Amino acid sequence: MRVSVQNRGNVDTISPCLPAEADTGLLSTADFARLRRFAKQQIGLNLHDGKRHLADARVSKELRRLGLGSVREYFEQLEQDASGDLLSGLVDSLTTNYTSFFREPEHFQFLEATVLPMAAQWQECRIWCAASSTGEEPYSILAAWHGHEVSKRTRLKLLASDISTRVLSTAQQGVYPEDRFSPEALQRMRPILLKGRRSADGLYRVRPELRQQVEFRRLNLMHPFPFGSEFLCVFCRNAMIYFDRPTQGEVVAKLSRCLLPGGYLFVGHSESLGDLVGDLEYVRPAVYRKRGVPLANARAND
Ligand SMILES: C[S@@+](CC[C@H](N)C(=O)[O-])C[C@H]1O[C@@H](n2cnc3c(N)ncnc32)[C@H](O)[C@@H]1O
Hints:
This protein is an alpha/beta fold. It has 2 domains: about 5-95, Chemotaxis receptor methyltransferase CheR, N-terminal domain (Chemotaxis Receptor Methyltransferase Cher, domain 1, Orthogonal Bundle), CATH 1.10.155; about 105-290, Rossmann fold. It has 10 helices and 12 strands. A 7-stranded mixed sheet has the order 8-4-3-9-10-12-11. Strands 5-7-6 form a 3-stranded antiparallel sheet. Strands 1-2 form a two-stranded antiparallel sheet. α2 (about 50-65) crosses α4 (about 85-95). It is globular and about 60 Å long. S-adenosylmethionine binds near residues 43, 99, 133 and 238.
């Protein structure tokens, strides 16, 4: 079984090297169909036929991790799992959590030059990172915020969410080995980091008093969002790449409802929205703006 996992710049792709075949692996055709239905409904994941070998290998690994003896047992537990832990494990095994500090740097340039100044008159500004993975993306936003004038006047409330409990726990700790940073990223992140000493040598920790500005929360993009129109911007980058087009459209519409008028949605550079924009307008590659008059001073005296 050969599976190649490639990361070409911004594009996370998982390419099966063998064509889909009938019942040769762990998952029978019926099992794969059941997994496909489940993944689509619960996670939004589009498991097309080309992913059958990948799914086979990853479900085998999950079975070993959970100490389960059969695929049937696995499905039963998965479908009854109220904690969401098995679902989280399935997402981790079928998608990549790849991320990095200041990934897709043009977004951060745009954030600093155009978006953050909008919040300078407000007492509070809310930003949501809707597929935050292990935290590099929300902490990059935090670093951009604290390097900007706006941080002297306005309070930031940053929400970081993901479906995976494993990545959220790493994000919440906010501790990263030095090799997680490119030299440029380390330079930009350094003001919000503490450098480890002695047993923590080679590690950096996000300053606890700043980390408190980030709320970590488990949220599934497939579920209704418990928010009104309240975020100045939403980052939802490199997660919708796994969804089929109709699911992407539904998620974009829900995210758009959470934006303030004039607020911005950032998606991954390989996730062009095309005709899915709805009440958003295209601003530049992978950046969309919610139509309506920006609430320039609306929150000034909240
Ligand atoms: C490739 S990472 C992207 C991380 C970051 N946004 C970036 O661009 O660097 C994709 C993340 O999406 C999360 N994800 C996948 N499906 C999801 C869903 N239905 N709801 C919420 N998060 C999901 C995964 O757990 C993973 O952490």
